[in-house]
Design goal:
alpha+beta, five-stranded mixed β-sheet
């Protein structure tokens, strides 16, 4: 099960997924308050990866912009091709 390193940018003007060098940056419109940005992140990943939300978990970084996300059911190559 791949674990992705993601940098989250909350309160952005639009939802966007960008790959810069080896870093995946995800811009979210929700603020980083009361878990709103984390919830939006899981929803966005679920939609883009076509997986149920239960298959996507934040392993570390719940209160940080730098997150490690565990994704069940897809290879790392499949994940990257669906995200970017």
């Amino acid at each position: 099960m791949p674990i992705l390193q993601i940098k989250v940018i909350p309160k952005a003007s639009k939802l966007q997924i960008i790959k810069e060098k080896d870093v995946i940056k995800i811009k979210l419109t929700s603020p980083a308050q009361k878990g709103k940005a984390n919830k939006q992140l899981i929803e966005l990943l679920s939609k883009r990866l076509k997986l149920p939300k239960s298959k996507i978990k934040i392993v570390s970084g719940e209160n940080s912009r730098d997150k490690r996300i565990l994704i069940e059911g897809l290879s790392e190559e499949e994940i990257l091709s669906r995200l970017i």
